[in-house]
Amino acid sequence: MKDHLARCVAEAYAQALPHRGSGRVADYIPALAKADPNRFGFALALPDGTVHTAGDADEPFSLQSVSKVFTLALALRRVGSALWGSVGREPSGSAFNSIVQLESEGGLPRNPLINAGAIATSDRLIDARSADAVVNEILDFVRARAGDASIAIDPEVAVSESETGARNRALAHFMASFGTLRHPVETVLSVYFRQCAIAMNCRQLARAGLFLAMGGRDPLTGEQLIEPHRARRINAIMMLCGHYDNSGEFAFRVGLPGKSGVGGGILCIAPGQGSIAVWSPGLTEAGTSLVGAIALEHFACAAGWSVFD
Length: 309
Ligand SMILES: NC(=O)CC[C@H](N)C(=O)O
Hints:
One of its GO terms (molecular function) is glutaminase activity. This protein is α+β, with helices and mostly antiparallel strands. Helices cover 45% and strands 10% of the residues. A 5-stranded antiparallel beta sheet has the order 2-1-8-7-6, with helices on both faces. Strands 3-5-4 form a 3-stranded antiparallel beta sheet. A hairpin with a 3-residue loop joins strand 7 and strand 8. Helix 2 packs across helix 4 and helix 4 packs across helix 7. It is globular. Bound molecules: glutamine (GLN). Glutamine binds next to loops.
C-alpha cells in the first residue's frame, strides 16, 4: 500500500512536471515576485509518520493564505462556535481580496478563508492578548505539528505585506466600521500579515495538516488538538471556500478539501488517509498554483482518494 502511494506521488509529479513554469507568480506583494516559477515540490504525509516527497519538497516557500487554516483551527479551539458571530461559512464566489459583499452583508465576511474572513478570524484569536503572543501561538502550533522548531516568519515578506497592504487595511477598516472587529485594525493586521509570511516547505506543511485528516488528533504526537467535529467542519470549509472563486473547479478536479495561497502552496486533506502539500509559484487567474492543482488532480486519481466516493 505504501509502495503504491509512493508510486502515486512519483506519477503525479511526473505528470505535472511538463507544466512547470506556467502560470503567473504573484507580484502584488513585491517580496513574493522573486519566487522562481520553475520550482515544484510535492509531499504526502501519512498518519504513521511516513512522508513521500518529490521535487523541491524541502525548499521553504511563503505560506500566505494556507496559514488561514491553522488560524481557523486555533480560533475555533479558543472561542468555539462564538467565532461564527464574526465570520460566515459560505463560499464567496469572488476574489480572495474582494470587498463588494462586505457592505451588503453588514460587514460580516462570507468565510474564514478569504482575506476579510481571515482578518476577522485573527481578530477573534487575539482574544485580548498581544499581537506578538498570538503570532507566537500560531508559530508554535505549526512547529509542533511539523515536528520542526526551525519554522519561522520570513521578515522580508512580512514587511512587504504590510507596506503594500492597502487593500487588506481597507477590508479591516471597513469591517471595523461595522463593529466586526474587537481589536484595533493595526493590531489585527500585525497578526494577519505575519501569519501569511510564515515560511514552510512541503514536507513540513504536509505533516502539519495531518490533524485535519485524523479527526483533529495529531497522529505524530497523539494530542487531540481540536474536537473531531471541528476538524470535519474545517475540511468542509476548505472544500467549499479554499480556493476563492476557483473552489468549485478544484472540488470538481481533485475532490478533496484544500487551501491555496498566492505563494503557490496548496494544502490538501484526504480525511482518514493523509495530508498532501504541493508548491509551485505560477498561479492561475484565481491566485492558486496552476501546477500544484494539476499534480493534486493526478495524485487523487492515481490514489483513488476522494471525499465523493
Ligand atoms: N490568497 C492569498 O494567499 C492572499 C494572502 C496575502 N497575504 C494577502 O493578504 O493578500
